[in-house]
TrEMBL record:
Annotated keywords: Glycosidase, Hydrolase
Ranges where the Mannosylglycerate hydrolase MGH1-like glycoside hydrolase domain occurs: 38-441
GO (cellular component) term, any one: endoplasmic reticulum membrane
Name by which UniProt lists this protein: Mannosylglycerate hydrolase MGH1-like glycoside hydrolase domain-containing protein
Lineage of the organism: Eukaryota, Rhodophyta, Bangiophyceae, Porphyridiales, Porphyridiaceae
GO molecular function: Glc3Man9GlcNAc2 oligosaccharide glucosidase activity
Keyword Hydrolase: yes
Length: 450
């Protein structure tokens, strides 16, 4: 698809440059988040990036997801990183992880499960394309359907320790929000006594002020080594992990992902003839539909338990200490994206968000800007992330907070226009931080702004 001839020159230029970012980061079927700093395929990055590809190359979008599933483990987990090709510019790489998955090698932990939701959006867009594109979309969605469902099941089997629909992460990297202040207290319980020597590589690419601290990295690595010692067996990891937290982001996104997978399932059932599915295949879909309904109920109960009255928003939960974590981060607003809160709570969240936006030049800050520990350039402790903005705005629209959604969208557009396609942005100045030419930022731009 050519960039539309009716678009303004300026607008055409931004689309072309966003597409160029994806092309530049394309490694033949999968996309790296950015060259150098992150030279492999990341789980949630790949899913968001596929949204970008879908705006002009739907087949390439599906390919991105199929490549991600090459990393799927026998137990269903989709790892945080798939190391398709060797590259020594990132630490920890496959030699350090030494996970049992070898072809291709992967990490031994996961990331927020957004793949079902992104697959839904891609399929949804293809409904408006020509017949062929839609049919190919349905076929791709069908190929991915059962592997995605196995991934979701893995969360409940391996991570719902208290069997209450609230799944936990065993490593801050699993939240995707690596140095979120939500982890500070829980990380203090992670011992670094037997930590071997290691060499970080992120600081070769990015300023130290914009990255997690050394103390945090030591704890990140101690956790990795403790999982490696038990060969990443999920039952043993649950025993040895010194960090077990129910993350608002992961739980909200898993709930939304179940809903979106149920949406896909309904489409597949209704198009079973066009897909030439056998009777057994059709029955398997119908039974999956029932199972997904149960998972939605289960995760909804889990989300309810993350409501924090003291903060007036959702928050994370420390499973080992058995208490809510009183730290206000932007992941609370993702409950709206999951369409979970009732009208009263949704209004509370919207008011809170509006107040946060009044404190900054560009929203949405990842952490309460009035908190004394707010740091406008340090990664997930203040900066704005466009993929999060998109999900929040999507949720706001679903609850008909149109003005607020528009404000988030306007800020997001302005950030890209003024700073470029950065990994994240300073909410006070709008300055771009971290890596440049960043895939998920450009992908969201392509998918959200036209
Ligand atoms: C960041 O995380 C990686 C570890 O997975 C890192 O810092 O080395 C996070 O922002 C994460 O959410 C993101 O998926 C990844 C790649 O963009 O980078």
């Amino acid at each position: 698809v050519a960039v539309g001839q009716y678009m303004s020159k300026q607008y055409r230029k931004t689309i072309v440059s966003a597409r160029d970012v994806l092309r530049k980061n394309d490694r033949g079927g999968y996309t790296v988040p950015t060259d150098g700093l992150y030279p492999f395929q990341w789980n949630w990055d790949a899913s968001f990036t596929a949204l970008g590809w879908s705006t002009w190359k739907p087949e390439r979008a599906w390919a991105e997801l199929h490549m991600l599933f090459k990393g799927q483990w026998d137990d269903g987990m989709i790892p945080s990183i798939v190391f398709h090709q060797y590259d020594d510019r990132y630490f920890p790489g496959p030699d350090t992880w030494q996970s049992p998955k070898v072809d291709p090698p992967t990490t031994g932990i996961t990331q927020p499960p957004v793949v079902a939701s992104c697959a839904r959006y891609i399929l949804q867009v293809s409904q408006h394309g020509d017949e062929d594109v839609h049919l190919r979309g349905l076929r791709n969605a069908y190929t991915l359907f059962h592997p995605i469902l196995r991934y979701h099941r893995w969360f409940y089997k391996a991570r719902d320790h208290k069997k209450m629909g609230r799944v936990s992460i065993h490593h801050p990297w699993e939240s995707g929000m690596d140095n979120s202040p939500s982890w500070d207290e829980a990380l203090e319980h992670v011992s670094t006594d037997n930590l071997p020597n290691y060499q970080r590589k992120d600081l070769m690419h990015v300023d130290a002020d914009e990255r997690p601290t050394q103390t945090q990295y030591d704890r990140f690595m101690s956790l990795v080594f403790s999982f490696r010692d038990v060969n990443y067996d999920y039952a043993q990891c649950a025993q040895v992990s010194q960090f077990q937290v129910a993350d608002t982001c992961v739980n909200a996104l898993l709930l939304k992902a179940n809903k979106d997978l149920a949406w896909i399932c309904a489409k597949l059932i209704s198009h079973h003839k066009r897909l030439s599915l056998s009777l057994e295949e059709l029955e398997a879909l119908k039974s999956a539909q029932r199972e997904l309904r149960e998972l939605i109920d289960l995760s909804s109960r889990g989300m309810d338990s993350l409501w924090n009255d003291e903060l007036g928003m959702y928050s994370c939960y420390d499973e080992r200490m058995d208490k809510l974590i009183n730290v206000p981060t932007s992941s609370a607003f993702l409950a709206l994206y999951a369409r979970h809160p009732d009208r009263v709570r949704a209004r509370q969240l919207a008011d809170k968000l509006a107040h946060w936006l009044d404190q900054v030049k560009y929203g949405v800050p990842s952490y309460d800007p009035e908190s004394p520990m707010f740091d406008s350039v340090r990664y997930w402790r203040g900066p704005v992330w466009l993929v999060v903005n998109w999900m929040i705005a999507e949720g706001l629209e679903a609850y008909e907070f149109f003005e607020l959604a528009e404000r988030v969208r306007r800020d997001s557009r302005a950030l890209i226009k003024e700073a470029g396609s950065y990994e994240y942005f300073d909410p006070m100045t709008g300055e771009g931080c971290g890596g440049n030419c960043f895939s998920w930022t450009s992908a969201i731009q392509l998918f959200w702004f036209p």
